[in-house]
Design brief:
about 70 residues, about 15% strand, Molybdopterin biosynthesis moea protein, domain 2
Length: about 70
């Protein structure tokens, strides 16, 4: 018997490498975000995971809003 549960997309766990590829950031920058607490993560065994929803929440801070000064 196989247990299948659908995980909501926001709760999906990504590896650090998947986050790096998605955001096109280097390993050092992603590790800085994790160390500073700007990006929450979970350590399971020797692997570190980041919830997709946490990445989206962090990313939302940098959304360009119409009417803002573009730099």
């Amino acid at each position: 018997m196989q247990l299948q549960t659908k995980i909501p997309e926001q709760e999906e766990l990504l590896t650090v490498d998947e986050v790096r590829s998605w955001l096109r950031l280097g390993r050092t920058r992603v590790n800085e975000l994790i160390q500073s607490g700007q990006l929450s993560s979970f350590k399971i065994g020797r692997r570190r995971f980041i919830r997709r929803g946490d990445v989206l929440e962090w990313l939302e801070q940098y959304r360009y809003q119409s009417g803002e000064n573009y730099k």
